[in-house]
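Researcher: Here's my situation. A collaborator sent me these components and asked whether they could plausibly form a single complex. I don't have experimental data yet, so a predicted model of the whole assembly would be a useful starting point for our discussion.
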Amino acid sequence: MRRDVFQAIADPTRRAIIALIALQSMTPNAIAENFDASRQSISKHLRILTECELVGQEQQGREIFYSLKIEKMKEIDAWLEQYRKIWETRFDQLENVLSTIKKQTK
Amino acid sequence: MRRDVFQAIADPTRRAIIALIALQSMTPNAIAENFDASRQSISKHLRILTECELVGQEQQGREIFYSLKIEKMKEIDAWLEQYRKIWETRFDQLENVLSTIKKQTK
DNA sequence: TATATATGCAACTTTTTGGTTGCGCAAAAA
DNA sequence: TTTTTGCGCAACCAAAAAGTTGCATATATA
């Protein structure tokens, strides 16, 4: 079973869950209330998010609070980094072209 | 058919294609040579990447060159931005805690 | 203690996805 | 002009994923 961050964030419901628990941890029931989906369906998404270590659990009596493990999000950031470099370079090149044109028209 | 950037980058082969054409545009055959996968399989991935506008095509005779539309990658960056804020805040809070401890031990 | 609540897990169904095969078309080469 | 090459597209298949249903279990509550 492929279970990485990229696969985890591919699903829109999971991205919504991530957004929801980003600031405070929540129980599956509380999370499910925000969606049309059933509790079981949300539970399954939570399991996937847990398996790829994007969220963590904390048991409190019979309730389980899920929270975002923000550290894991940095993995996506790290992947993006190489492309960020490219678009910054391209922007610089555009800058150069523009300033050359400017000089010529002077 | 759901076709967004997040779904596009979920597949490892597609991420590899993105990395491959990030710097120079390539034909499907040339791309496929870098994988075990068949040309048709790669073609299908290219179609998905094209549909979500992550890559662009340019016909040159009977060859078609595919290139990365780096602008689209910024969409992922924009999505990450909100979480980047969170992890920076948490880091600041940690900093505060640490400096408080430091002061107390002085 | 009996009942209600919060949750996970396994089995099953449906949908989606990734891959292959075969075909057609247009451009280049022979 | 015939053949080869580069490619897309549609049809099919198998595997994976998403969702549903029906439990089982543990913790609260009456």
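Model: Some features of this prediction you could bring to your collaborator: The interface with chain A takes residues 2, 4, 6-7, 9-10, 12, 15, 19, 22-23, 68, 70-71, 73-74, 76-77, 79-80, 82-84, 86-87, 90 of chain B (CB under 8 Å). Chain B has a mean pLDDT of 92.
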